Amino acid sequence: MNETFNMNRFWLLVRRQWTENKKVYLLLWGVISLSLVVLTIFYSEKYEMQFFYILLFCFGGCVMIPTLFSRWSDFGRSSFFLLLPASVTEKFLCGLFCGIILFIPVYCVNYFICTYIFTYLIVLLFPNNLLSFSAVITGGINEIASTPFSTYVVIFLTFLFAQSLFMTILVQFKKRQLLIFLLTIMAILVLYNYGINLLMSKILYIRRGDFRAPGVILTFYSPDFGYEKSLGNPSSVEYFSFIKLIKNLNFLIWFIVFSLLYLTTWFKLKEREL
Amino acid sequence: MITIEDLTFWYSKQNRIFEKLNLKLDAGHIYGLLGKNGAGKTTLLKLICGLSFPKSGTVSVDGQTPSKRKPGFLADIFFVPEEISVPSLTPGKFAEIHGSFYPAYDPAQFREFLGKFQVDTNQNFSNMSHGQKKKGVIAFGLATNTRYLFLDEPTNGLDIPSKAAFRSILAAYFSEEKTIIVSTHMVRELESMIDSVIILENRRIILKQTIDQIAQKFTFSHSSLSSSPGEMIYSVKSELGLSKISLNPSGIAGNVDLEALFNASINIPDKLSSYFEY
């Protein structure tokens, strides 16, 4: 018997997860869909909406997890889960499968349907509507395609960070996990923002401006901070931006942080006692 | 075989549950695990299952370490906790999604046990009483046919006919390759069920004997008027009069009064254990 990973056992876990929690998942789907429609109808500012979309995305990704790991104070339920004949890796990956592999495509499709198609159907109810369906869909596709890749990276990293932190807290603590999560994330954001501000303004002397470096959550900085490097020919000058370097470093830090948090969850689950 | 060597465990260092505990349990027995509230019955089961980890010492089940919770080991054990909590599913659906994890799970047996317990396969657990839910989980646990079955206070919350059904199902289910541990403080309910007794008290095991060995050693009698031929070693007032434990001079096994034995173990542990060779 393979004691680490067996595909059959993994699918059995996924099936069990869906059968036991489909009501929660359908409810979550309904809440997200409704929120997306309401946001799209009542908010005209795209930037404001983006914040809520990310919030909804992270919220959904976090809600997927407690159905698997959070019932430690319920001895009957948690003992049954821990003693279910599957490895820790399979149980952990089942959580990731539901929370990432299934959730992200479903959210994206839902986002598109609610934001463009469903909203168009509502707009149709208004008289003198000049929009055509194909124009709405094409506009939606263009909007998604024209969004810079780094924006998606930031959204994805934020999602993974929130989810991995929530997962770790769920496995580590028996009670008040949501409160601990909210307090932790607030503390991290404050410390992170303070640290970034310190790095930018006091160490690197990058002045504040109207540019928001992707991944740098709360602060705006000037994009033109860097230096010009002559390539021999006076007319050929390469511009090197520090912001780009900070952005990539920032991505790398977040990548390491959430990877470590997922790894911590796995270890905590392995060592979980009741 | 379950082997526990020098097991020490605590939830808080000031209050140790077990101190250098040693125990060997062979296959082919139904063990009754007795002890007062807080003696550590559930904790011992949790340590054997791998839900808690020893602070020092070892626990092994057929050579495997429970705390590693490997699928091969987990497929061979089933634990029915005292407090049952089940998802909002019918027993049939519950067994369908969980049964496949256990190689020896028998769906026909599950339906048979549910029938004996008079639990409807198609009624949702959320509409059932605590006792009904418990019977559903016990039926599933028995139908998994694992070699090790651990039942923590299984008859708590069960009505009288269900307790009788449980006893008959367990007797029919039991076979030589299986090991069943039933933890309870309701000692009378165990009398016709178990073939060995383990009594936990004061961080150690004060008695571990088969019912036959106990019956050969002692006679149990009630009422102050009845006299036993052997030397009386313990007596206690009970609702039936005076419960007495005397030495059995003939060595012919009779009935064992578990309640009297339990009381004696708590009150005169050293004297009682001196009659058995360890």
User: Which chain pair shows the most residues in contact?
Assistant: A-B, 29 and 29 residues
Given helix and strand content, the structural type of chain A is mainly alpha
Uncertain regions spanning at least 5 consecutive residues of chain A: none
Average residue-wise pLDDT of chain B: 86
Tell me what the CATH architecture of the largest domain in chain B is: 3-Layer(aba) Sandwich
Assess the beta-strand content of chain A as a share of residues: 5-15%
How widely separated are the two ends of chain A?
Answer: 26 Å
What is the element string of chain A, with H for helices and E for strands? Answer: HHHHHHHHEEEH
Report the radius of gyration of chain A as a whole number of Å: 22 Å
User: What overall geometry of chain A do the principal axes of the alpha carbons give?
Assistant: globular
Figure out the total of helices of chain B. Answer: 9
Topology order of chain B in helix (H) and strand (E) letters: EEEHEHEHHHEHEEEHEEEHH
User: According to CATH, what is the topology of the largest domain in chain B?
Assistant: Rossmann fold
Counted up, domains of chain B total 2
Beta strands of chain A, count? 3
Provide the β-strand percentage band of chain B. 25-35%
Oligomer: heterodimer
* CATH C-level of the largest domain in chain B: Alpha Beta
* The CATH homology group name of the largest domain in chain B: P-loop containing nucleotide triphosphate hydrolases
- The residue ranges of chain B in which pLDDT falls below 50 over 5 or more consecutive positions are none
Q: Tell me the structural class of chain B.
A: alpha/beta
